[in-house]
Amino acid sequence: MSADSPPCESCVDVLIIGAGISGIGAAWHLQRRCPSRSFRIVEARADLGGTWDLFRYPGIRSDSDLYTFGYEFKPWRARQAIADGASIKAYLAQTVHENALDRHIDYRKRVIEAQWCTAQRRWEVTLKDEDTGERSLVRARWVFNAAGYYRYDQGHVPAFADQERFRGPIVHPQHWPQELDCSGLRVVVIGSGATAVTLVPALARQAAHVTMLQRTPSYILPVPVEDSMAPRLRSWLGERRAYALTRRLNISRQRWVYTLCRRHPKLARRVIRAVNARMLPKGYPVDLHFNPPYDPWEQRLCVVPGGDLFKAISAGTASVVTGHIERFTASGVLLTTGEHVEADLVVTATGLSLNPLGGIPMLIDGRAIRPADHVTFKGMLLSDLPNMAFAVGYTASSWTLKIGLLCEHFCRLLEHMERNGLEVCTPRTEAGMRTRPLLDFGAGYVQRSVDRLPRQGDRFPWTMSWNYDQDVKVFRRGRVDDPALDFLPAMPPRAGA
Q1: Helices (H) and strands (E) in the chain, counts
Q2: Per the omega criterion (within 30 degrees of 0), is the bond before 6 cis?
Q3: Alpha-carbon radius of gyration of the chain
Q4: Is residue 250 packed enough to be buried (19+ CB in 10 Å), middle (13-18) or exposed (0-12)?
Q5: In which element (H, E) is residue 97 found?
Q6: What does DSSP say about strands 340-342 and 332-335: parallel, antiparallel, or unpaired?
Q7: At 138, phi and psi to the nearest 5?
């Protein structure tokens, strides 16, 4: 450490970056499975929750049921299977408090750099106090990056012609003003993804009218607000066994829907269209507004609890317009067809901006690394990067299902290293191995940033798996001492240390 380096604040075995759903899950597993390992969570925000603390727009909710999106170790007790953001954040807070994880979290500490020092076999992580601006240093044997994959400070907003001419406010959901009152306003929501289909019915309860203006339709499916089987199973089996069985049933249901869509896309398209048509007014132009040009699950399916979006359309409080924006006007949006959509408020639900590994600058002995130059190992480590794990969940299922398995495997790896006197673990790729994008997913926010993400290989263990049952075998029961991992034994203690 140079003379002008910040003071060293602490030394830990594992530094977890981010106190969201992934970071909290990692902390629980470490505390439970590796009690001899010290850990610390650093969080740039003032509270826990990550995504569920950041997003505050009307109607914010999960798009996966909480029996699978919740933790395996903590039953979901609320009646709603698809939960609102406040309920999910409360669930995370309960997890932290019940397991005394509060004492491990440092809020308002932003990671501004992480450097691996080969000579010390440690990560040196520079933190910035968001309140005072002061910098400090944490040394860690391992870094577990749970900072997420998109920018918290900026969503994606395309450049619209003449946007400055519009007289009303233009709001991105990621930065929703809490004082914004939509009562009596004509609202245009630009977009057709999960955020848009959540916002439209929520805003329609108070606005004069809401228009979902989409360039391309999405596949949208209604799902029950509550899981009808969960309370019955709870009364028969008790809370924990009922939760485990409900979780298993919902995992199977998710997998069945995904498999149907991918193997029989024409059949899946017909089924989804029939469901949409049944929930919309007779004669509604389903094929214009709900008929995507791609196959089901080439992009994530959007879910609407209780069919709330379809109900708003049927009630006349919301409508869908499909077309391309030519420019903004003083009173709305003009399409290339010549149609003008009147608006007092425009909401740009146009997606996320990806930020691989939380956008944290990472170095090895002073040399900056680019995530795109590295290949993922089992979707949790990166080639040639020592003692660094990261959290990426499923895109075709509940995010947390993958995170839970990944955390288990990470703890098994730490236990293996401790038993065998090992200190450093570095994945090494095979010579000549072909690589491809990490996320084979058609969503715009992925495609815009795919060249900045790490890569995956063409064979195990360098591929990303999206199959929960296969991952159970790999992460929970598979070997941790993979031949692709280069282990170094612990150095003998230095004299006088």
Answers
A1: 13, 25
A2: no
A3: 24
A4: buried
A5: helix 85-98
A6: antiparallel
A7: -120, 130
Cα-flanking dihedrals φ and ψ of residue 115, to 5°? -125, 130
Asked if 379 and 392 touch (Cβ cutoff 8 Å), the reply is yes
Amino acid at residue number 495: A
List of E strands, 383-478: 388-390, 422-427, 435-437, 455-457
If we measure between CA atoms, which residue out of 144, 116, 146, 113 comes closest to residue 424? 116
SS in 3 state form for 309-372?
HHHHHHHCCEEEEECCEEEEECCEEEECCCCEEECCEEEECCCCCECHHHHCCEEECCEECCHH
Comparing CA positions, the residue from 40, 27, 114 lying closest to residue 74 is: 27
Of 470, 449, 347, the closest CA to residue 401 belongs to 470
pTM, 2 dp: 0.93
If you ran DSSP here, which 8-state letter would residue 438 be given? S
Tens digits of residue pLDDT in 166-176: 999 999 999 99
Check whether the bond before 461 is cis (ω within 30° of 0).
Answer: yes
In this structure, what token pair is assigned to residue 26? 């990692």
Chain CA centroid to CA 300, Å: 13
Structural contact between residues 116 and 363, judged by C-beta atoms closer than 8 angstroms:
yes
Mind listing the pLDDT tens digit for each residue in 60-78?
Answer: 999 899 999 999 999 999 8
